Amino acid sequence: MGIKITGSGCYIPTEVVTNLDFAKHIFLNEDGSDFPQSNEIVAQKFLEITGIEERRYVTNDLNTSDIATIAAQCAIEDANIDPESLDYIIFAHNFGNVKHGAIQTDILPSLASRVKYNLKIKNPKCVAYDILFGCPGWVEGVIQAQAFIKAGMAKKCLVIGAETLSRVVDKHDRDSMIYSDGAGATIIELTDEAGGILAHETATFSHDEAYYLYFGNSFNSTHDPDIRYIKMYGRKIYEFALSNVPKAMASCLDKSGLDITKVKKVLIHQANEKMDEAIIHRFFKIYKQSPPEYIMPMSIHKLGNSSVATVPTLYDLLIKGKIENQQLNKGDVIIFASVGAGMNINAFVYEM
Q1: Which residues pair with 84 in a beta bridge?
Q2: For the purposes of burial, counting CB atoms within 10 Å of the CB of 336, is it exposed (0-12), middle (13-18) or buried (19 or more)?
Q3: CB atoms within 10 A of CB 292
Q4: N or C: which end of the chain has fewer CB within 10 A?
Q5: pLDDT in tens, 43-68
Q6: In 10 A of CB 26, how many CB atoms?
Q7: Residue 301, class by beta-carbon neighbours within 10 Å (0-12 exposed, 13-18 middle, 19+ buried)?
Q8: Using one digit for the tens of pLDDT, what is the confidence trace for 125-150?
Q9: SS3 for 203?
Q10: Is 249 helix (H, G, I), strand (E, B) or coil?
């Protein structure tokens, strides 16, 4: 018996925003002073550090729950299941539905309930709820689904990660260039096959790190102070991730009882290419190894950082052969890992 991903789907928004599209933005320092470098230099340095060439934004008519529904429908069809048979719908997001032009989030009813409504599921025993866990939300949702199945409380769960970060970014903050929109969904089931989720690791670091990511005012002091935007201390997050994520991944792998040489892929949150590469190198260094070629598939170059959606979207693209020079085969061992607001870190080891 194994708890496995039996279907996946994603929604990649249609609006392509390249780094050149930020040329007319007025970037400011945190104190509101003019940023000394030209936007061309800002864009070039940004690309060198993050690896992001372009990102995707939703059209004005779509909200987070809408794109989540599309991804969920794809996952249900991929798994070939009756949606009425779902025991749980677990929806990871961070900001709810922020309608275009609005300044307030809408999370009543929960986004999970909206997806259930959109899917026309009548079964009242299909429990729908949201989780707010920063960027690692989808990974945590999978871990929770596994726990429900292990406890005998469920057999099938729909786990979604979706976000529209383009609606909560400060256009005067260079960090806004990182963020994007997207949705990914998976069906997690108890199956007759061996493998599946073999081990997991989760941790919250909040003693000193709780406010590394936070909601704050625009760098432009003329903006309404009651409107808040996603903000971060990038250097602190970078150092935190490099110090703690490799250790969590190693702890998770050790729990699984597998050797590092068995790991075929690492699907890590698409936050920053250089940071992810450094995490992978530090992880393998723990075992006195060097990362094999093609160990870390990436989608950040074209899709940016869509928070909770990056990992399930990456998996869906990978499993469906849409990432160049990358593939998954039966029996392959994968490590899923993420880091984000909280500060939270999690991972699970998975055998195809």
Answers
A1: none
A2: buried
A3: 12
A4: N
A5: 888 888 899 999 999 999 999 999 99
A6: 11
A7: middle
A8: 999 999 999 999 999 999 999 999 99
A9: strand
A10: helix
The dihedral over CA atoms of 192, 195, 199, 200, expressed in degrees to the nearest 10, equals: -80
Q: Which helix (H) or strand (E) holds 128?
A: strand 127-131
Q: How far apart are the first and last CA of the chain?
A: 13
Report the alpha-carbon distance of residue 8 to residue 312 in Å, rounded. 8
Residue 109 preceded by cis peptide, ω within 30: yes
With H, G, I as helix, E, B as strand and everything else as coil, classify residue 250. helix
pTM for the complete prediction? 0.94
| CB 44 within 8 Å of CB 52 | no
**Count of residues for the chain?**
352
Pairwise CA distance, residues 23 & 38, whole Å:
9
Query: Which residue is it, tokens 């909601």?
Result: 215
Please choose, from the candidates 36, 38, 22, 28, the residue with its C-alpha nearest in 3D space to the C-alpha of residue 221. 28
Integer Cα distance of 206 and 195 in angstroms? 33
Q: Read off φ and ψ for residue 60, nearest 5 degrees.
A: -60, -20
**Token code pair at residue 54:** 């372009």
Paired tokens of 249: 């991944």
* Token pair 């798994």: residue: 79
Query: For residue 272, how far is the Cα from the chain centroid?
Result: 12
